[in-house]
Amino acid sequence: MKHITIKNFKCFHEVDIPLSKLAVLAGANGNGKSTAIQSLLFLRKTIEHCAKWEKGRFDYSAPNGLNVELNGSYCLDLGNSDYVIPVDSNMRDIITLGLFDERNNNEFTVTYSTNTGQELWLTPKEVSNRYRDNPLCHQEFYYLNAERIGPRMSQSIKFYDYPNVGFKGEYTAQIISNLNWSFKVDEERVNSENLLGSRFEHYINAWLRFILPGVSVASHFDDKTHTARIEVQNSYSKNNAIIPTNTGFGISYVLPIIVSGLIAKKDRFMIVENPEAHLHPSAQSKVGQFLAIIANAGVNVIVETHSDHVINGIQIAVVRNKIKPENVCINFFQQDDNATQPKVTTIGIKEKGELTDWPKGFFDQTQIDYSYLIQLRRNV
Question: If 0-12 CB within 10 Å is exposed, 13-18 middle and 19+ buried, where does residue 15 land?
Fold first, then answer.
């Protein structure tokens, strides 16, 4: 099993967060889920900025004097170097972030200096890299921010080193158009029940119909205006295209997840924040199943969610043998009384879909509300 290590960064003084093929980050707002993701994003940004490109991957083994900006790419907006230190920390000048593979005793860690505390960057001071084939060192890295773009009449296009939809899904239309006739989807990721053709669009629409019944999309690329666009059809359009701005946000929010899942290379990271956004509960559950299948196909999937329906979908995928239970872990972030940092409890899933633990506060609001309603009714 892999894990993220964080020392002296934002709300954490020191913590290890387990990862598996499908790692779920859950818990109340402000308890460290985003910090865990940002630690990986900042490590990735460090590698991209400071490493050498050798033999088809990034090699980062020693500091080279370059600073790493705290704001900008990967939607990071961390402020200055003092803001990323825990407010009650006695150590104001050092941050350590890393990724470990316990099976092979491999580690990749970077220790940063915060300098005076007023800089808009951190300075790598020490690098330990016994984990040269870690998922962060490959060119392909897939990240979808919680704030994805909504329906647009058209989307911009750009040059890319490898196919990806952007941090907010802003290049989804271009990627579909570019790959439509050439991309071969991994057989482990094909939804054969809803597949109606052999183009990339057809594989996307098979999953889109699974998640949002009756919905399909088509992409168009306009080389004269250097834009691409998505057209939508649904059960009520009678085979006529609907302009994106006349459809709901759910389609534009889930489509980049589907596309990223189908194009992501094995053994790479795919990080998705709030996959449930703007989706009906039934669609949220099916997104959970989709992400489990993508993880089972070999992609390292990390999901931040506030949805018990997404977790239900993952449990269903386990029972349907779409992913092995040992390849799923749920990290529950919660307040711990009188503690100086959030507590992280790791929950597993058994073969029949049961959770190995159910700590207080873990998606129990429905039961709490029902109990409260019964009390209120008795008093009426």
Answer: buried
Residue 125 has phi, psi (to 5 degrees) of: -115, -30
Question: Do 199 and 259 reside in the same domain of the chain?
Answer: yes
Single out the residue in 235, 263, 291 at which a domain terminates. Answer: 263
For residues 49 and 109, state if they share a domain. Answer: yes
Q: What is the pLDDT of residue 270?
A: 98
| Rounded-to-integer distance, Cα 37 and Cα 53, Å | 24
Do residues 342 and 214 share a domain? no
Residues 151 and 132 in one domain: no
Range of the domain at 27: 1-140+271-380
Query: Tens digits of per-residue pLDDT, 57-108?
Result: 999 999 999 999 999 999 999 999 999 999 999 888 999 999 999 888 899 9
Is pTM beyond 0.70 here?
yes
**Count of domains in the chain?**
2
Backbone angles phi, psi at 165, to 5 degrees: -95, 5
- Whether the per-residue pLDDT at 237 is higher than 80: the answer is no
149 or 237: which leads in pLDDT: 149
